[in-house]
Amino acid sequence: MTAPILASTPELAIKPLVTAEDLLALSSKGRFELINGEVIEMSPPGYEHGAISNLLAYVITRHVVTHKLGQVFAAETGFRLARNPDTVRAADVAFIAKERLPSKPPKGYSDITPDLVAEVVSPGDDPDDVQAKVKVWLDASVKAVLVVYPGPQQIAVYHSLRAVIVLTADDMLELADVLPGFTCPVSEIFT
To answer: What is the pTM of this model?
Structure first.
């Protein structure tokens, strides 16, 4: 009886898991995220995605700075959400409340999970991938996840996978549980 040949079969070869530190070293080579130790290459977002992400970051930052609520992070700031194997995700906008900020900024990825993240959906994004990313954020204890849909000008606000509110351009975005006093017309994000 012969033993099965596994190691010489390329499709069955075991890939080594990548750590958050390994991922940080790759940052000069492109845009990547890390899911359970596996590197995922990200495409640069398009024009509309960038404009909407910037407007959303602006209105959130304006409120956070005015009321000294914490810190807002720009697109593609990585946060380590799990270890062994490591998961590092980056949102289009992220916020951490003042009382949860580290006394000294970390050199690499933060192990502090954001309180709020926003993801702007690009035309080529797979809906299942978007939902999987929302689940990863929520499983990491993010209090609110915003999924922004440019085409229909809608924002889905997730507090859990079961507690979802879909807002249209005629609605107000209110995030009092994460950003006290914050309100913004949804239409402002899409102008």
So the answer is: 0.87
